[in-house]
Please model this.
Amino acid sequence: MTSARGHSLFTAFRGARQRRAIVIDAIRSRLWPVPAIGVVAAVALGVVLPELDDAIDDNMPVTLAGYLFGGGADGAREVLAAIATSLMTVTSLTFSLTLVTLQLASSQYSPRLLRTFASDRFVQRTLALFLATFAYALTVLRTIRNANDTSGFVPRIAVTVAYLLATASVLGLVLFLGHLVRQIRIETMLDHVSADILDTVGRTAESFDEESSGVPPLPRSSACVITAESSGFLTQIDEADLVAAATAADAVVFLDRPVGSGVVANVPVAFCWSADGGGELDDDSLKSLRKRVAGALHTGVERTATQDIGYGLRQLTDVAIRALSPGINDPTTAVHALQSCTAVLCEVAGYRLGPRVLRADDGAVRVVLPRPDLPELLDLVCTQPQIYGERDPLVLGGLLVLLRDLAWVVREPEHRQAIADRCRRLRASAAAQQFDSAEHAELERLAGQVDDALAKEWCPRWMT
Model:
């Protein structure tokens, strides 16, 4: 019972982390939230600072006043108008450069990388700075009054802050251009995607050092069907809601679709059956369970990396196969993408993947979640690059290096068997090509290193 209670608390903690990650991802993946927050804060500051100016203007120390704006009302208007005009131009330029970068990334590498660019914090904060400075300058401009009015007023502190924001914007523009040049590099993009994959795995999978969730039960022949409410990609699963729904109905729920798969409305996505092993669920319980399970499965128009382990690897693989297309013909980029896949798979091999069992507080099995295992992820990474790059010995060599490095870190027999099967297929593919003898010998040497790593020969042939 203690172990079951601990497992339940761990599941709840993991669910809280996942929900927090979902909210953060929803904000980060859009360009507008951070700039919108910046505009609101700038307007508020533009209202508050002139009031502060008016309150302390007569009592301001001479030393401090010497560093503030010292012109009259007309000069203050000209400064603020110049700042507002120039910042709107700079903002338009920044948006244009961002859109050009997105277009280039989509056509040159993969359209699935657009989400990575849109979630770039530096771009979001730079746009927020520019728009905030524009909104602040306009807000302060409305408070300036000439001396021939009822009472002249120049908010010296507020105008000085506008000058400082304009200076920061100029510096931000320079840094933004440098950042944009760095972001468009393929190495940077691959590194960002790899980091997202490992973050997702760390939140959704258990390491081998953690207690196993148990062997998942299979659906029974008498299981009832649960259909999807809407069409799209399955973007997230609310694990806590699923366990609560299954516990309330005293049932076991078996999801048939992993996160990231496409679902269609009114098509089965899960099965359920009574947990006591006898009898069927009554109509009311079944109706309530179907509604709650369908509500815990969230769909969207695009895949996200919040809970989807395979999405990041899909992005890396897309970069590889796009680089192998006749229109681009860049096998070096394909090999770089395979190297990133190698590093990710070697890290993922330290986690327990495959179907996961969720239990209630009493230790009873309530939900079975499908997840891709390491052999499935290996097929995702290797299949298409092998198909489109089989005539290039550099690509086949990159795939064999991937298998060799992965073979050194895998733990499970089925994982080793999957590597051996893939190596056999690569050998056959290489043998069918009209490479010269030196290229065939190099590929066979790499394949031999895969065999050595699988056999755990600690004095392998490449060291002799």
Q: What stands out?
A: The chain has three domains: 16-23+210-373, 31-184, 390-464. The first helix runs from residue 2 to 28. The chain is about 60% helix and 10% strand.
